[in-house]
Specification:
Layout lengths: L4 H9 L9 E3 L7 E2 L5 E11 L10 H18 L3 E11 L4 H17 L4 E8 L3 E11 L14 E5 L4 H9 L7 H12 L5 H6 L6 E4 L4 H12 L2 E5 H4 L5 H4 L4 H7 L2 H10 L6 E5 L4 H10 L4 E8 L4 E4 L5 E2 L19
Parallel strand pairs: 4-5, 9-12
Antiparallel strand pairs: 1-2, 3-6, 4-6, 7-10, 7-11, 8-10, 9-11, 12-13
Bound molecules: adenosine-5'-diphosphate and magnesium ion (MG).
Adenosine-5'-diphosphate binds next to helix 1, strand 4 and strand 5.
Length: about 350
């Protein structure tokens, strides 16, 4: 089928936008027009996904559409912002209607869930690249930042960590997973759930927050640097965050045999792509944190605490330090990193 740029936009990316919700004008004009509510500030974030670098070129387009938007919504979640709208810049190597149809469906389904309409973008020919900019709003002065943590606060993580990394390792052929385990872990890699409601519920409770996209320890380090504090993390608590153990149907022995301590640690501490929230909160807010999480139907776990002395220390069950050097964060410009991470 032969379609030009405008037909693609019209067919796959243009939908009427509900008049409520702050969007005055969506796709079709030179600019979209938004009307943020009084008393709100705009929170803006962009994320780009490049074929071969961030995903395998043959990735299911539905999941890809979902993930491209999910990683952006996750940034809003980390800031405690409510989604308002997003734009999509898309480079396509060729026009494949079936691919476009599934890609748009995955993306717009998630957009509907979060009442976050697509209001504009750009479409061009080029190596498959998906760049989304998301706009959210947050009551003035209430955005959660990375820099608000103080010493002697709790460090919390939402949900579970490590399954996305586990699935990636299996898809790259480094480990073998039972088919039903891979299938479930793969959902976390390909269709992450941004913690949008939790982020908003944590406004006024958490002191600092960010989302885990590159690996837990590396991302905690970003928060510590921004806040000018250090932290102690307990491996006994962090180790519980792995969801994969629940995937091994009943056979704990089989789980431990296939799942070495080294892999377990790598998946939790360094595995990226989970899009959970890590946040600090004063000890006095413990009940409030639990209540916020309960309201959002998300589990939260306390894995350590901040302290005045700089640096991140990880402790094992016998109170011995664990070397964290091996769990540095993912860095796209580091020579050691391979593609399609
Ligand atoms: P211009 O050349 O003025 O930048 P374009 O011709 O690129 O406008 O786009 C026409 C309209 O379609 C604009 O409203 C633009 O925001 C929108 N648009 C282009 N590509 C996309 C896309 N991938 N998703 C959503 N809207 C898009
Ligand atoms: Mg244009």
């Amino acid at each position: 089928m032969d379609m030009n740029e405008f037909e693609i936009i019209q067919r796959y990316f243009t939908r009427s936008v509900a008049p409520e919700g702050g969007v005055v004008l969506g796709v079709g004009d030179d600019c979209a027009l938004l009307a943020p509510e009084p008393g709100m500030q705009l929170a803006i974030s962009s994320d780009m996904l490049v074929a071969g670098q961030h995903f395998f070129p043959d990735t299911d387009p539905y999941g890809l559409g979902h993930k491209a938007l999910a990683v952006n919504l996750s940034d809003l979640a980390a800031c405690g912002a409510r989604p308002l709208a997003f734009t999509l810049a898309l480079a396509l190597p060729n026009i494949d209607p079936a691919w476009l149809q599934r890609f748009a469906a995955g993306m717009l389904q998630l957009a509907d869930t979060h009442h976050c309409p697509l209001v504009g973008g750009d479409t061009t020919r080029g190596p498959l690249t998906i760049s989304i900019t998301v706009l959210g709003h947050v009551p003035t002065g209430q955005m959660l930042t990375r820099s608000g943590a103080r010493p002697d606060e709790d460090i919390w993580v939402s949900g579970t960590l490590g399954d996305a990394c586990l699935a990636l390792q299996a898809l790259q052929g480094r480990i073998t997973l039972a088919p039903q385990v891979l299938e479930r872990a793969r959902v976390r890699l390909e269709r992450p759930t941004p913690r949008v409601a939790l982020g908003q519920a944590l406004r006024g409770i958490a002191s600092a927050a960010l989302d885990v996209s590159d690996g837990l320890l590396g991302d905690i380090n970003h928060l510590l640097h921004a806040s000018g504090v250090g932290a102690d993390i307990a491996w006994t608590h962090a180790s519980q965050l792995i969801a994969a153990s629940a995937l091994w149907t009943g056979d704990r022995a089989g789980f431990s045999r296939d799942f070495s301590l080294a892999l377990h640690r790598h998946c939790i501490l360094a595995g990226g792509d989970d899009y959970e929230l890590v946040f600090s909160a004063p000890v006095a807010q413990r009940a409030a944190v639990q209540e916020a999480a309960r309201c959002c139907d998300v589990q939260v776990s306390r894995i350590g605490s901040t302290r005045a002395a700089l640096g991140l220390r990880l402790w094992d069950a016998h109170n011995q330090p664990i070397d964290t050097a091996a769990y540095a964060s993912f860095d796209h410009f580091s020579s050691a990193q391979s593609s399609a991470q």
